[in-house]
Write a structure and sequence with these properties.
Oligomer: single chain
Number of helices: 7
Bound molecules: guanosine-5'-monophosphate
Distance between the termini: 12 Å
CATH topology: Rossmann fold
CATH architecture: 3-Layer(aba) Sandwich
Largest sheet: 5 strands, parallel
């Protein structure tokens, strides 16, 4: 049986990655779609686990070779994309795939896979809360923080195109809600 695609998208800082990591530890036959990116690796990240970190040239070659299921220049100069080879391999093994990608990429995959895919939007309770969370996370400079907040405001306008929204007011409750939604979808 072909696996299913579960796509999480959210403004940066919504808690999406925390939820995705939690779900991957539950043993639900879920495998994480490792994206390719040209952005610099953060200290706590591992190449080939969190992302495939590619040079801009390498990434652009892969675009030309039609290697991506979808790709976006998520932030100016920083490209992110889902490799077809990764998705095909996991689906053919009967694995369900979990995606942590941006809003447009999520909707593109949903369009491609229809009912085989579930697009989930994770939302912060407010933009103010999002700002605080991003500051606490401390991975951004003032400039990239403002870029991410601007993008978040834009991304929130896409919510109604998703199958389901999870409001992350309390991370433990959001994780539990996500678990129930996914168990139901892959059952
Ligand atoms: P970050 O730099 O914080 O890891 O990710 C920035 C944004 O890019 C996040 O919203 C993340 O979900 C998104 N992203 C990660 N991988 C992909 C991908 O393969 N495709 C698209 N379209 N967005 C991605």
């Amino acid at each position: 049986m072909q696996g299913k695609l579960i796509i999480f998208a959210a403004p940066s800082g919504s808690g999406k990655t925390t939820i995705v990591k939690y779900l991957l530890e539950l043993g639900l036959n879920l495998s994480f779609s490792i994206s390719a990116t040209t952005r610099p690796k953060r200290d706590n990240e591992v190449d080939g686990e969190d992302y495939f970190f590619l040079s801009l040239e390498n990434f652009k070659n892969k675009i030309t070779q039609n290697c991506f299921l979808e790709w976006e220049e998520v932030y100016s100069g920083n490209y992110y994309g889902t490799l077809k080879s990764e998705v095909d391999r996991e689906l053919s093994l009967g694995k369900n795939i979990l995606f942590d990608i941006d809003v447009k990429g999520a909707l593109n995959i949903k369009k491609n896979y229809g009912v085989q895919a579930l697009a989930i939007f994770v939302k912060p309770p407010s933009i103010e809360v999002l700002k605080e969370r991003l500051k606490i996370r401390n991975t951004e400079s003032e400039e990239t923080l403002n870029t991410r907040i601007g993008k978040a405001e834009y991304e929130l306008t896409f919510e109604d195109q998703f199958d389901i929204t999870i409001i992350n007011d309390n991370i433990e409750e959001a994780k539990e809600e996500a678990r129930l939604i996914i168990q139901n979808f892959i059952a």
